[in-house]
Fold these 2 entries.
Entry 1:
Amino acid sequence: MCGIVAYNGDENAIPIIISGLKRLEYRGYDSAGIAYINNKLNVIKKAGKVKELKKNTPDNLFSNIGIGHTRWATHGSPSNENAHPHLSMDKKLAIIHNGIIENYNVIKEGLQNRGYIFKSETDTEVLINLIEDVKKNEKISLFKAVQLALSQIVGAYAIAIINLEDPDKLVVAKKGSPLLIGVGENEFFVASDPSPFIEYTKDVIYLNDNEIAEISRNNLEIRTISNELKTTYIEKLTLELSQIEKGNFETFMLKEIYEQPKAILETLRGRISPDFNFVKIRGLNENTEAFKATHKITIIACGTSWHAGLVGEYLIEGIAKIPVEVEYASEFLYRDPLISNKDIVIAISQSGETADTLSAVNLAKKKGALVYGICNVVGSSIARETGVGTYTHAGPEIGVASTKSFTSQVTVLILIALSIAKLKKTISESEFTSITKELFSISNKIQLTLDNTSKQTQQLAKLYQDSKNFLYLGRGISFPVALEGALKLKEISYIHAEGYPAAEMKHGPIALIDKDMPTIIIATNKSKYEKILANAQEIKARSGKLIAIVTDDDINMNKIADHIIKVPATEHFLSPLITTIPLQLLSYHIAKLRGCDVDQPRNLAKAVTVE
Ligand code: AGP
């Protein structure tokens, strides 16, 4: 995924674009660049983060129009040549692009046969030269050339183009990748999400797939690739600038870990009746017949969202008694899944832009399933494609490692399980109200867990920061939490870690256990407690270092484990909301001690918008 920013208006585009790129850096940070026009078409671009670009951009530059890009490399290494913006061969057009052109090779060959020479390895440079080629041969405007060129493109794109021959116009287009237009007074902003322009305007136009906009300083026209004129709908953003800034926290990730009590309250807001006897989820309540009748629910997602889906399997099967299958979206996509109009498919995605999940959504829709989205970003592609679903309302998550989005996704899945259980009467009224009441106040226990485990996880981080491997174990609903804990450590500290069902350890991974191998075991599950104790003893019998997460009232594990992390006891089905917290903090502190960039870990991006 990459970040794009563009500006056309009365102010100086250059500082607006560069600070906008800083806000989008979570989308990719391999290289950054800017193009602007002041009599000439100028490009400045550098491998590295936006701060490298800023260092190479003189403060006295001025232009009313410009485009900027921060890159997560897909085609071609993160280098100056492959950085965006890319120029057409005649150096009159400059383009930035978020997405992937799947048929760029065949187009490139055609252009090369017509004498085009390429400087980079990117698909984007192919696109801008195709547009130049069409524009010249057909003797048409840039807007029309973009329409014609995009009709030949297979893939996803959010693009912005400036033209030296028509320096007052910006042409933008979208398909499969997000592109928003901020509407100001005599100025327009274009970006991948609202953060680059939220401080200037809350009026926004969400460009739809296959739409192209021509933007001058005080006017905008939107047409489809087939030239149908579109009415512009201006919507109001609810996002606040403070939500996308770090505040008093040293990193976004730490801020978002500590925002979880508030985020869960936002997720629950208006969705639990005061008497705890009813949960209200509009998307589900509009499809009760489908949820009552379905023979199976399939959950599709990637990464942390897939882990939330695994928790959802335990929740929906345990509370609502409906069979659930959880699939990696990328696997679901290519195995011709047995899905029909009798199925419900739930797609979970924080960003709502993950290409694997978006493509799997479209496949499930094509097969006739009811596709239900659980997203955090309002108006995101998956939210729009599914059309029915539930927003997590966790607030913007800037840190690349998902934290509050995981616990808010689990919270929505708990509400869905309870809602279906109410419909199908699969649990007693007393069980229902007991879980719902505990859920309503779970934020207090999350806050308690944050307060009580912060220091301890910092101390443990000092002890284990140089470990080469970690093992995370859990049983039942704690197994997906073990997977999530391992992923957190991997992606921000670069230490290898694996999550396993606790009982599975003796079927192979136990061979890894020695005095240098720390294992984290989640032992809060009363129903399997004796078995977890046995697993803990198996580890100690092989001199493994053992960190156990237990409930406050635990009296046995401290005789076995090297370290005990105590967390408040809660309803079995709600325990992932608590046990995840110390795992997030431990990963965070280890990564910080190792000098890693926790908000922008190497090689990663906040959402992967390429399959
Ligand atoms: C998790 O910390 C990672 N950021 C990554 O695994 C992420 O969960 C995955 O890419 C899915 O993203 P999504 O929820 O935005 O679809």
Entry 2:
Amino acid sequence: MNDPNALAWDAPSLAEAFGARFRVGAAVNTWNLDPESPACAAILRQFHILTLENESKPINLQPEEGHFVFEKFDRFAAFGQANGIALRGHTLVWHGQVPMWFFEGENGAPATKDQLLSRMRTHISTVVSRYRGKIATWDVLNEVLRDEGGLRESRWYKIAGRDYIPEAFLAAHEADPDARLLINDYNLESSEAKADTMVSLVEGLLREGIPVGGVGLQMHLSLYTDLELLKKNVRKIAALRKLDSALRLEVTELDVSCYRFDDTAEDLDWTPALEEAFRTKYTELFRFYTELADEGTLDTVVFWGLSDAVSWLNGFPRRHKNYPLLIGRGWRVKPAFYDVLALAGNTEEA
Ligand code: 9MR
């Protein structure tokens, strides 16, 4: 019987169940790595790949030019090595959580293109070479596309145009030729225009010989996500493998909100109807993931957070109680957890 009260560290392991097909992971923070903590027990039981939710972003790694702060990332790397857990590096280039000095030039003028690209290369090569051989995958570029299609008009783009994109991959590849280098984005599943831009951008980069290792699909979903459209868009992106069979997809930030993005509802209670919709959504999703894995397209699925209690979706886009993950409050695994586990085909009893 599936124990409805099982806690994440006693329940069957998602990582073990899916291990032959894909790695299962979660976004964590270094305070979760304390060996005495429940979070750590949950991690060791359930996951075999981890991402730092915030602590490896540029604003935390290089708050001032030339002043690198590696303490937390070092701790994360040591934890991975000690426990045989693979690690993802998130993220090298982003418009968010990046210190403003990157974009500032002399006397209040904006940085020149050369200045910006040189700062970018220094950041990438310093960080990636330090963790060479220790970080399996880098989200080299995060969220560089617009939902409406085309490249995001970020400060990166305004100063350097499209060139910062190939340059970032080249710098990361030089620093660790064995790491998998991804371009990572959200809403690829819900915006055809965005998915099409991803396809044409990666096609162009591959033709130019740029070492793109794959596409990260964040997959911040909701109960209202159209899964037919999701499958169609993901299939388009997966077809990039015809240009390079080594290319992989990773699901990098999975969660399923019970609110529509523009929903102004007060806190929703977890009703049987919501639970049912949640189970259906997760089952269909993981069925699709196993298909993609069996085709050799997808090899990693990472949840964005350890449990409902700590998900960013309790505070975004508004403060409201959310229930987006398979591990609920109090570390209890949900019925949907067992539905998903059953898809792996080799469930052990809790
Ligand atoms: O989960 C992260 C949250 O704690 C931060 O406040 C936020 C800052 O922008 O970033 C969140 O993580 C984001 C990730 O780095 C990139 N994709 C979207 C994630 C959710 O916003």
